[in-house]
Design goal:
With 351 residues, this protein is α/β, with parallel strands linked by helices. 43% of the residues lie in helices and 15% in strands. A six-stranded mixed sheet has the order 1-2-10-7-8-9, with helices on both faces. A four-stranded parallel sheet has the order 5-4-3-6, with helices on both faces. It comes from Sinosporangium album.
Length: 351
């Protein structure tokens, strides 16, 4: 075995790069595909977690960003811009540093998790907090990239989805074929579209014998695709997917329909329960939005929408450390003791 080279080198012949494309990488991809014993037992399925929080900046966004930033450099860009609920901005900021580009990010004020804000700032991005929603931010960045010399690196940039499709390749490479079902959170709807692209590509050239049914999950207070209309004031504790008018809406519906899957809503309560289950029963610390995939699988099984015995992959999209505020608010307060082993023994109920 040899060291992982980052996803552009690993999947070069399946990506729109040439020998002269400057590869900007933090060695993203190659993330764990972890058997989930507890979720498998609860669902009667063979469930694996694709742990995308193990990427360099802690989310799946790095897969898209290595491509978007490499192509931006190839095309002569000096600056990049994105709208973000936090993870895209963290990733763009880091890859921009790597490439020597300046990076501007627009985020909805007060609606992004602390860790993500910290990442954008520490990597030196120009961060503007907009008094509006993610959807407002995205519209602004589209206008700015049209009118000024600054490249847009949101997932409306087609190179982003090209990079993100490699997660599907890794899953098939690890399992030997595609799973029966793939569960994934849906926000701006780029990632579900990218996975579907990857699965279809492997199926059409015979690397896989089939493609999975794609099951996407939106938060119930931010579920425009489920409801069939944009949501003006999306609300959810899962701030990463607090999006009312997804850019890749049509692509996500195509993934759903072509694969024989579904896009459903899960409540904040279900998301919080799945978050806790992953942390306390699987040892996997994800952020709230990521838990929507597992919440959705549990719901689909409870509703009888899926039979038992299936092989299922749930993408958990981001690292739990992104949102320490939520993690701490739900946990018991730590006990304080003096420098005294006996006091520790008492507190631990050992003595
Ligand atoms: N999970 C996490 C942790 C995310 O950050 C996002 C999107 C999603 C799921 C949904 O993926 O948008 O491709 O459907 N975050 C974007 C951002 C919007 O700005 O970081 P999607």
């Amino acid at each position: 075995t040899r060291a992982w080279r980052g996803l552009i080198e690993e999947y070069r012949d399946r990506l729109p790069v040439s020998t002269t494309t400057p590869v900007v990488t933090l060695l993203e991809g190659g993330t764990p595909l972890l058997p989930a014993r507890r979720v498998s037992a609860l669902t009667g399925c063979d469930v694996h977690l694709k742990v995308e929080g193990a990427n360099p900046t802690g989310s799946f966004k790095d897969r898209g960003m290595t491509m978007a930033i490499s192509k931006a450099v190839e095309e002569g860009a000096k600056a990049v811009i994105c709208a973000s609920t936090g993870n895209t901005s963290a990733s763009a900021a880091a890859y921009a540093v790597r490439a020597g580009l300046t990076c501007a990010v627009l985020v909805p004020r007060g609606k992004i998790a602390m860790g993500k804000l910290a990442q954008a700032l520490v990597h030196g991005a120009r961060l503007l907090q907009v008094e509006g929603s993610f959807d407002d931010c995205l519209e602004m960045t589209r206008k700015l990239s049209e009118n000024y010399p600054i490249a847009l690196v949101n997932s409306v940039n087609p190179y982003r989805l090209q990079g993100q499709k490699t997660a599907a390749f890794e899953i098939v490479d690890a399992l030997g074929d595609a799973p029966d079902v793939h569960c994934i959170p849906v926000g701006n709807a780029g990632n579900i579209s990218a996975y579907w692209m990857g699965y279809r590509e492997y199926e059409s050239d015979g690397t896989a014998t089939r493609a999975p049914r794609m099951f996407g999950f939106q938060a119930s207070g931010a579920a425009p695709i489920v409801g069939g209309a944009p949501v003006t004031h999306p609300q959810t504790i899962a701030t990463a997917i607090r999006i009312g008018n997804p850019a890749s809406w049509g692509l996500a519906e195509a993934a759903r329909d072509e694969s024989g899957g579904d896009i459903q809503a899960v409540t904040d309560r279900q998301i919080a329960a799945a978050y806790k289950l992953l942390a306390q029963e699987e040892g996997v610390f994800v952020e709230l939005a990521s838990a929507a995939s597992v919440a959705g699988l549990l719901q689909a099984r409870e509703q009888g929408a899926l039979p038992s015995g299936l092989r299922v992959v749930c993408t958990v999209t981001g690292n739990g450390l992104k949102d320490p505020d939520w993690a701490i608010s739900g946990a018991p307060s730590p006990v304080t003791i003096p420098i005294d082993a006996h006091a520790a023994a008492v507190a631990l109920e050992l003595a």
